[in-house]
Write a structure and sequence with these properties.
Blueprint lengths: L16 E3 L3 H10 L7 E5 L3 E4 L6 H5 L8 E5 L5 H13 L12 H4 L17 H8 L17 H8 L5 E4 L10 H4 L1 E6 L2 H14 L9 H9 L8 H9 L7 E5 H6 L1 H12 L5 H10 L2 H7 L12 H7 L17 H14 L11
Parallel strand pairs: 4-5, 4-6, 6-7
Antiparallel strand pairs: 1-2, 2-3
Helix pairs in contact: 3-12
Length: about 350
Amino acid sequence: MGNNISEVCTKIASGHTVHEVDCATKEKIDKLLPGPWADVVLLRPHNWVVLRRFLKIHEKVYNFQFRPDDVVVMTYPKCGTTWIQEIVWNMRNNPDLDNPDADDALFVRSPYLEIDMFSVPEMAFDIASIVAFTKGIQKYVWNLFHLLGSSPMFKVAEAHRKPRTIKTHLPFSMLPKNLLDTCKVVYMSRNPKDNVLSAQHHYKLHKMNNFVGTQDEFVDLYVEDLLLYSPYGQHLREAWSRRHHPNFFMTTFEELKADTRQQLTKLDAFLGTGLTDKQFDNILQITSFRTMQEMHQLQKLNETAYNMDVGNKEGLFIRQGKAGTWRDKITPEQNAKLDLWIRKNFTDHGIDFKYD
């Protein structure tokens, strides 16, 4: 991404500097992602891709006051985030399936730290989206007037009175340096070949992204690290280097899918939730693919948020919940391109994946 059209070179709280994408890259992004969430900048080192609106909240995010009883769920996007987020929240708060808070919006009971960067003037809301994003908000903050003004969902995270399960897609290098010494972090990764297909569907489904290209073009965006929160390689390497920290739990989508109960048992020991066999059964039931596909609030968003022609044909937010679907959908040429990228970014750094 050389020959930048204009270097902003502002330094943000994490120490990264802000740079504009070059002309050719901007033209490609604008063509393939005509939605308003295509207005991105790069943060160096590593060329992290974030929405320009992140610059309005970066200082709040970096200086966020984590508490010792927080649990942070950290992922690169489309690695099964909602699944592991619901697992952790329910293990900590709803093991007997009797907590009325379970009906509240996921991003209210389990705040998404940097979600306010996605709030743009073009975003439309209806009853379904208001319920999906704000139901129950009055339970989690001392004073609703506190939410007035900018960054309302960040304020929910700050004002949350209960032990928090906080979601982020940000890498370690963009979060407080003392994060792991302050609270526990659960990190889940996914093999890139399934991850790229899940991301492609997400970018096609959401009107705010509105991907209009071919699968070849999306794979190119992916391996060129042009999607939000990229580069995945650096994201996972930062987590991998911390894998032995006592406050860090690392799993993969494939491991969780292959033997969910075994991974929940390990997670239970890490979180100290002390679940009974019956409570494990409850968590398995409430976070099963079928239950989440039928009941989850993000499944109930409609044409205001989603391209419903895509949703009706290919599925909504929670779609397949499988590992290994790439084998039927990625072409040999795309597979070869991904293999080269995987070797450079993961295999050469000692990180391997299961692909089924």
